[in-house]
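# nightly structure sweep
# worker-07 picked up a monomer target from the shared queue
# config: single-sequence mode, recycle default, output format = structure tokens
# input follows
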Amino acid sequence: MESPQHPDRVFFLENLEKLRGRLGILGNEIRTAVLDAVQQRHDTRAALERYMRMAGSNGAVRDRLAVIAAELETIVPPDFLSRFSQSRVKLLPRYLKALKIRAERAYVYPEKDKAKESQLKARLAEFEEVANRVRLRPTREGLDFIEDVTRMIGEFKISLFAPEIKTLFPVSDKRIEKKLREFPE
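# output follows
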């Protein structure tokens, strides 16, 4: 950091006063969200490892499970606490439950999983292109846009791979495509 900014004492004390009596509650909410995400990640990882052992030398199943294991690392990267907002951390258990269901189904029907994943490929490529442009010149608007599309893609994956979880809002490939077109060049 070239010139670190020190917190304004008055601002800090004013915020501390606003939060008086609620700080413990807010801290507990954050702790609970993080622990739920970490526990669900552990459960999903354990299920993936179990299916991988059961797959033995079945290459098709092992390939699908490897793809799903890589997605697990994308959903919950090692630095998720420093990268994700509290609202996003609260959503992680849903996405991880859906991934666990996907792993179970991919173990039984790897070709179905591959077919469903192909429905995502074009949109994910478009999203990465937009996300890379935002990363080159990050703005609050661009980062919020990326967060919105990331959430839409997460919900779309739920609708494809674990529809019994139900999406939080209506989502489809067409809606994601339309949203991506809204991004200013």
